[in-house]
Amino acid sequence: MRTGIRPQRSPQIPAPARETGAAAFAVTAVVVTAAVCLLAACSATVSSGGHPSPAPAASRPSSTGHVTVPANGHLTWLLTRSALAQLVADPSVRAELRAAQVYEILQPGQQPLTGFAARSVVTFASAAALESAVNAGQIPPGTWGVLYDPEAWSFTPVAEQRNPVLAATQAAAVAHANGLQLIVTPALNLTTVLQPGSAQPRWQQFLDLDLVGHLARVADVIELQAQSLERDSGTYAGFVEAAAAQATDANPAVTVLAGLSTNPPGAAVSSQHLTAAIQATRSKVAGYWLNIPGQGPRCPTCNAPRPDIAIQTLQALS
């Protein structure tokens, strides 16, 4: 893994300490806006072609940050209910997952998969919808936590796209007050809203904003949506290492996961791509969100689902 100097940090947002007061939220919003305005003046480097440019050495920091790994040494896995069902159909993968910590992502109203013990997590693309569901008692008893997935898409309100830290802070206050843990999974495309017009690769803009560091202060688990970079394990590792360092610097207790996909937009990937990405980063994160997407409203450019790639990846790691 190539490493280097940590990127320049944006002005730090004071840790919210999970307050519920309106004043705390207002202060956070003002500081985030100021940070984004300052960062908009950063110099830009043009990325060639349609793929992320490899990270220069100076953008790849070393990290000795805290990593929470299950006591048995197995990686932690974040999986949708559909992905989990496809994976446990394979006996060797089922045995591997039973020995690991698995978080099962459920849509509101969806029931957990029977016959497999996992921590249930209900997912929302809107913090407002998350707070409403929790406050209305719509989260089933025994649920471990809730997941907030802010992205630059129609499922996340525009106001939340413009200030995801404020939205996550409010979601965390409601979740924690109701005994739930919070997973936050910010997408790289939030940079198109927070730092529009930049010619830098999205992963570099994301690091320059220190968005993960700001969100890690209120999250219990933070997931880095790095799957678009997985075709180049060096770029993937450089981004994951830098973002994980930002998260654990801000909150040493946060659990950091990284994203992988069997079917990211663009050229096809293989299990070798995913395995190389894992081997390059497994010492920097506790585990991975292993996506097995198919074409639909939330992934209009995806191809057909490829559970076979995920199965091959987990078999290679066992």
How is this structure best summarized?
The chain has helices at residues 22-39, 81-88, 91-98, 127-135, 158-162, 164-177, 191-194, 202-209, 211-216, 233-250, 271-281, 307-317, and strands at residues 76-80, 101-106, 119-124, 145-148, 181-184, 221-224, 255-261, 287-291. It is of the alpha/beta class. Strand 7, helix 11 and strand 8 (287-291) form a beta-alpha-beta unit.
Terminal-residue CA separation:
22 Å
Radius of gyration: 18 Å
Number of helices: 12
What class do helices, strands and sheet pairing give? alpha/beta
Helix content: 25-40%
- Shape from CA axes? globular
Write up what this structure looks like:
Helix content is 38%, strand content 13%. It contains twelve helices and eight strands. An eight-stranded parallel beta barrel has the order 1-2-3-4-5-6-7-8, surrounded by five helices. Strand 6, helix 10 and strand 7 form a beta-alpha-beta unit. The N terminus is likely disordered.
List the helices and strands and how they pair.
Elements: H1 22-39, E1 76-80, H2 81-88, H3 91-98, E2 101-106, E3 119-124, H4 127-135, E4 145-148, H5 158-162, H6 164-177, E5 181-184, H7 191-194, H8 202-209, H9 211-216, E6 221-224, H10 233-250, E7 255-261, H11 271-281, E8 287-291, H12 307-317
Parallel strand pairs: 1-2, 1-8, 2-3, 3-4, 4-5, 5-6, 6-7, 7-8
Helix pairs in contact: 1-6, 4-6, 10-11, 11-12
Highlighted features:
13% strand; alpha/beta; 8-stranded parallel β-barrel
